[in-house]
Amino acid sequence: MIKNKKVLLMGNPNVGKSTVFNEITGSHQHTGNWTGKTVDSCSGKFKYKFNEYELVDLPGTYSLLASSEEERVARDYLCFNDYDCVVCVVDATNLERNLNLVLQVMELTNKVVLLLNLCDEAKKKNIEIDTAQLSKLLGVPVVKATARSGKGINELLEIVYQISNETLLNESTTLFYNNTIESAVKQVSRALKGQIDTDRNLRFFSLRLIENDESFNSSFKENFGSDVLLKGNVRASIKSAQNKLKQFGINVSQTVTTAIFDKSEDIAKSVSKKLPSKKDAFEKRLDNLLLGKYTSIPIMLLLFGTVLWITIAGSNYPSDWLRGVFDDFQVWLADWLVSINAPDVFISLFVNGILRVLLWVVAVMLPPMAIFFPLFALLEDFGVLPRIAFNLDGAFESCGACGKQALTTCMGYGCNAVGVTGARIIDSPRERLVAIITNSLTPCNGRFPLLIAVISMFFVKNSFLSAMILLGMIAGSMLMTFACSKLLTSTVLKGVSSSYIMELPPYRKPKVLRLIGDTVREKVIFVLLRAVVVAAPAGLVIWVLAHISVGDVSLLSRIAEVLNPIGLFLGMDGVMLLAFILGFPANEIVIPIALMVYLSTGELSDYASLESLKTILVDNGWTWVTALCVCVFSMFHFPCSTTLLTIYKETRSIKWSALSVLVPLLAGVVCCALINLISKI
Question: Any bridge partners for residue 8, and if so which?
């Protein structure tokens, strides 16, 4: 006879839950969203010993004390849904941290089995765990496993079968807090008994109600009815318990959290031991450098400067080659169109307008992205990038933002659009918006060619000193990001900052070929395609403006004249301001557009050398003030079309998209105006 059973899969992020899920269910899985939530869900079917099971993979979470959307979903499912067994997946290499969640789950139900996963990784790290003693201390069965090889899965299924059919009854450990809290919990539990229909341990419910957790109270009322908490005996018992705890000055949340951490630490120390190894010593020395008080920031700057240098230096040659190939192609195409008697206007519009801008964007964007993103991914895979984010965590939190914004900011140096999509890692919607809105304050690699060229022409010619000045500008952009994040969290995005655990992964040898392939496919092509979509229309607009005349002057030049007062106020001129506006599809075409207007060529213009470019700019009134303001405005101005499109896609809001334009633009306007004003004093 087939019996339908439900099994829940729980665990911290990155413990191998997905691997366990796939190993058990195979291809019989379904993905979707939790009702009323934006958190991904996954469920699958499997059979074992004439029982049919539904396996529900709950969101990865560190706690049931609900500080994030994932934690709320996991907590509510455990509290208010029917199930026959809970499989807690635990990382054998980090037992202490993982046990925090296990102990919380066991306060709700005794239908628990602990799956000690990643035992192969633990063995590599010389970690030994006494599973028999661990099982004894927790009062639940413990199964050793290496899910990716299928080891331990059959034993797990047998335990699940026994628990779900109640042939194995656990006596899970219950934490003791203190006499006052225990008395309060018993008082509330007695009042709840018979008032709500559940087979859960009322201990967890009582603690959350005593804490007056608004999120839990809302879920409790939704599932059991709002009238339960209004009943005299229930309301009176909760109020009495709260008053008693207040009288003794006991903070329930703090006491419970501390007790859970202490218990996890005690259990982990008693059942596991780690033998020292040469690798551990090496990783410790590396952490001392990357996370050290005096070494972390210099090393971070050195690494980032090196990545930038490799990107800029390495991209010059393929960019020049691509431009040459594309120029030859345009000449050939124009000649062919002439040979078939195509109209001159069409040839000029299509070849010198639309196609020229399109190919220019590809030639300039593709090489630096193809270099930067794989280097970025290598740092991430090796374990360096999370440590850089850790170093910036405190600064972002002091601004009322989330520490994870450090990661999205780093992504933005490659491409702001990627940084915007990367903000999905931030759980809080408010803090995710802060990261999205401020990401355009991070200069992407599309702005580096302009910055490097201007720095080299007007400030220093030495490549090393140029790189140092660029690094200083990037540091300035980081300070501006902090300032704008603080402004946003103090005004339109007020709220209480969420807390989270930043997990520092072990150092791993990167899988270079896989990383390069994934990065090119998921990031480089993604960004390039979006840029191409808007480059063609932009080419059309630029061509039309350049070829429509008002009197003897092109409409392009007329617009530049109109913008000139504003441009001069910002320390630039109308031509550069127009170039930034028309460079909306891609920052890479700002200088070519400016040259087109300065030289009145009617099409995008390249330059033979930096010396020749400087001569043209100086002849058109450029000074060191102009150069500095152009650099600052390049760093702080409205996002490019690709980024803005991505912002709207992520937020689905015209309001937040508009604010994402205004914040960096106002930052640039204020900075440039101040520089110009100070230069005249």
Answer: 56, 86
